[in-house]
Design a protein that fits this description.
InterPro entries: Crypto/Photolyase_N_sf, DNA_photolyase_N, Photolyase_Class-2, Rossmann-like_a/b/a_fold
CATH architecture: 3-Layer(aba) Sandwich
CATH class: Alpha Beta
Domain Photolyase/cryptochrome alpha/beta: 28-160
CATH topology: Rossmann fold
Pfam family, one: DNA_photolyase
CATH superfamily: HUPs
Helix content: 25-40%
GO molecular function: deoxyribodipyrimidine photo-lyase activity
Shape: globular
Largest sheet: 6 strands, mixed
Number of helices: 4
Protein name: Deoxyribodipyrimidine photo-lyase
Length: 161
């Protein structure tokens, strides 16, 4: 997926500066961990992930983690979200970008997924919720020092950071 749009630098926050360098011979995929911004269009985090993948000549993939207890959501809300994710999956795969749906505690599933696929970069969208920030902090701690992690404010008109 080519992207001619660049992301405003004020939207991007480096959570972890990995040791991977452009001179490295093998480049793992760029993974976009989607959470708050469950959309394909006008998604600054996805655009940033695609730009990183293009710059490093690496594949890009999208992963969504479904928590066992999804922030107090009820069956109706989860059904609505899953229907939207099904549509999103079809849209993303039509662009030949793999989409992975994980289930469980993201503190475990995301680092495991990153390790299994040998990712070089992880991009995620910004969330102001304390639980999500705590989860991201734990993911940063549990991933390899070679992994670069960026958080992109894809939701707010004026970036919060």
């Amino acid at each position: 997926m080519a992207s001619a749009i660049s992301v405003q630098p004020g939207r991007i926050r480096v959570l972890k500066k990995g040791s991977w360098r452009p001179s490295d011979q093998t480049v793992g995929p760029v993974i976009y961990w989607m959470f708050r911004d469950q959309r394909l269009r006008d998604n600054w985090a996805l655009i940033h992930a695609v730009n990183l993948a293009n710059r490093t000549n690496a594949p890009v993939a999208v992963v969504f983690n479904l928590f066992d207890q999804f922030l107090g959501a009820k069956a109706r809300q989860l059904g609505f979200m899953l229907k939207g994710l099904r549509q999103l999956h079809q849209q993303i795969e039509s662009l030949q970008i793999p989409f992975f749906l994980l289930q469980g505690d993201a503190k475990d599933t995301i680092p495991n997924f990153i390790t299994e696929c040998g990712a070089s970069h992880l991009v995620t969208d910004f969330s102001p919720l304390r639980e999500i920030r705590s989860c991201k902090d734990e993911v940063v701690k549990r991933t390899s020092d070679s992994l670069t992690i960026h958080e992109v404010d894809a939701h707010n008109v004026v970036p919060m950071r």
